[in-house]
């Protein structure tokens, strides 16, 4: 069965790392059809819209989408795209690979971030010249949906047994209280062990001792900030892939942005995007291929060639070729 | 002129580290009158109230308050106490001291955290069986007040010239947009340089290279989480003091909690509380004494004795005596 993959490069190094990931995917000789869509700053400049309806539809109708990065318009692109694929969870693995100079080389975490609500609800008002409000939304249904996913995730995996619920329910008593109760309730039903950590305490303890954590289930903004913190611990955003999973669709993207300082030079690190492609393969059922890609990436990270952000001097093409070579 | 200092030990190691800080303050022979108030889990158990009105009034009427920690009731104690002293900014220095095993020994940051609003507004509702909301509040007035404080803070200091505004205005456009515009606007008026960093990007970059940051001005929850992250980078919460500053009053507290695992053994690290006392001295105009305390603490951190959390085997009294000795 042919899979229809929407490909959205976006701006900056998105235009360099997505072609690299496509090279890797094409070398696997699977029955993939790649269809391109446009989004980002340049499209906004040209058309007035950062995410044209046609690109939204492309992602909504595809079997999966691979997205690069967008510049100033990032939020206008990625938030609607997550919605286009009806994504309820953002999976963000943060693993320190051998050969990469990491602040905390023992880090090996997976964030399961609620992907639809919290402060991302989009309800804001200017109530006076002095005052604005934002309505933070938490539902039991979205929290339970995330929790079921998290339970299945750890049950289906050889590497994980339980998860930590990270929240700030001591301050956000009703909203994060609801989140916590829903997630812990589902986990109890499914017989999955959990522990609870306050969001601020997590930030301290993950620096001091990342090995005490494994899978982290958390609200939207907590997942955003804490997974970026983990990115710092493993040596930078250049390595972190992510998956936005919906019931019938999904979108895969590197956690990094457009890197305007190096864009256009062909020297961007394609690792995060190639690992995102591996998450896509896994999601589409090509588990063996996904493993092969991850293993090839790991071996190149360990032995080189490496891009500048990792202390090497290889360009994007050389790193990509080395990965393809090892597949 | 005699200063009236409210002293609230609270629970757990609060009852060990506050007496240590009082020892240090008493050894300075200043004209301080210490008046004790109760708060925390034990008081709640006994009276039904975590923060009795009498303790609230004590803090409100004192020249300054020194607070230890509270257990399960932490939020019920500290949030009203911050209100009792009309605190609009929470100052949180996070500095790696020589002799302390830090994840990032170059870390030397000061967080200026908005202390009254954001998700701490306290407006939450259960709107249905499925749905809760929280109203996140941002005002120009509170943001400008913080900004004026921040500008004065860097202008009055030899160590700081500018500050970073950390926010998530790409998602919270009206609320954090208002915060950013207000803070940057005041800084421009006062001629203080600023740069802007998104909250998630800050979390990555402070791990990778803490030296690129100095003073950080941010909303309430961002300050909570990011300063705790910085605590992780400098080697733990045992070292971090904080000051809640109001126009006519202030409250000083270690960033750490009650540490139930070691409470009652007399082995808690008193450093964070003694440094909080130093911030109090500085605030009350005893700058020379504040410097002496900080210097004594630094020298004990460098040379020992050290408590267990820092790899030593000294108890609270020995560390306190060593600090008093060096004053
Ligand atoms: C660009 C921004 C809206 C986005 C987010 O906050 O989710 C980004 O930080 C991310 O984590 O993918
Ligand atoms: C106890 C809690 C309410 C408090 C906060 O979130 O402000 C604490 O984490 C702190 O930072 O002092």
From TrEMBL, chains A, B:
Which residues does UniProt call coiled coil? none
Q: Which InterPro entries match?
A: IsoPropMal-DH-like_dom (IPR024084)
- Which terms under GO biological process does the entry name? isocitrate metabolic process; tricarboxylic acid cycle
Key words, A-Z = Oxidoreductase
Highest taxon of the source?
Archaea
Q: Which SMART domains match?
A: Iso_dh
Question: Cross-referenced Gene3D superfamilies, in alphabetical order?
Answer: Isopropylmalate Dehydrogenase
User: Keyword Protein biosynthesis, does the record have it?
Assistant: no
Pfam families of this UniProt entry?
A: Iso_dh
Does the keyword Oxidoreductase feature in the UniProt annotation? yes
The Isopropylmalate dehydrogenase-like domain covers which part of the protein?
A: 4-323
Q: Signal peptide location in the record?
A: none
* Record-stated family: Belongs to the isocitrate and isopropylmalate dehydrogenases family.
Under the heading PANTHER family, the entry gives:
DECARBOXYLATING DEHYDROGENASES-ISOCITRATE, ISOPROPYLMALATE, TARTRATE, ISOCITRATE DEHYDROGENASE [NAD] SUBUNIT ALPHA, MITOCHONDRIAL
Name under which the protein is recorded = 3-isopropylmalate dehydrogenase
């Amino acid at each position: 069965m042919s899979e229809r993959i929407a490909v959205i490069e976006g701006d900056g190094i998105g235009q360099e790392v997505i072609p690299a990931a496509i090279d890797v995917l094409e070398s696997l000789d699977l029955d993939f059809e790649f269809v391109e869509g446009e989004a980002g700053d340049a499209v906004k400049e040209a058309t007035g819209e950062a995410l044209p309806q046609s690109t939204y539809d492309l992602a909504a109708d595809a079997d999966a989408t691979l997205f690069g990065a967008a510049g100033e318009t990032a939020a206008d692109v990625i938030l609607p795209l997550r919605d286009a694929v009806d994504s309820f969870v953002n999976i963000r693995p943060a693993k320190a690979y051998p050969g990469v100079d990491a602040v905390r080389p023992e880090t090996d975490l997976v964030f399961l971030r609620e992907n639809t609500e919290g402060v991302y609800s989009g309800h804001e008002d200017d109530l006076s010249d002095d005052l604005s409000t934002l309505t933070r939304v938490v539902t039991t249904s979205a929290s339970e949906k995330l929790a079921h996913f998290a339970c299945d995730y750890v049950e289906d995996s050889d590497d994980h047994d339980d998860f930590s619920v990270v929240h700030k329910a001591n301050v956000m008593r009703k909203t994060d209280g609801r989140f916590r109760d829903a997630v812990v309730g589902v986990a109890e039903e499914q017989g999955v062990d959990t522990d609870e950590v306050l969001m601020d305490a997590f930030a301290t303890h993950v620096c001091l001792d990342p090995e005490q954590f494994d899978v982290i289930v958390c609200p939207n903004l907590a997942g955003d900030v804490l997974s970026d913190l983990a990115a710092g611990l493993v040596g930078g955003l250049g390595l972190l892939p992510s998956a936005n999973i919906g019931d019938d669709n999904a979108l895969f993207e590197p956690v990094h942005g457009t890197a305007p300082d190096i864009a256009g030079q062909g020297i961007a690190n394609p690792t995060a995007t190639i690992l995102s492609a591996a998450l896509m393969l896994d999601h589409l059922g090509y588990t063996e291929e996904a493993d092969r890609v991850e293993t090839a990436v790991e071996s190149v990270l360990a032995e080189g060639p490496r891009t500048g952000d990792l202390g090497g001097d290889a360009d994007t093409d050389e790193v990509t070729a080395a990965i393809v070579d090892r597949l």
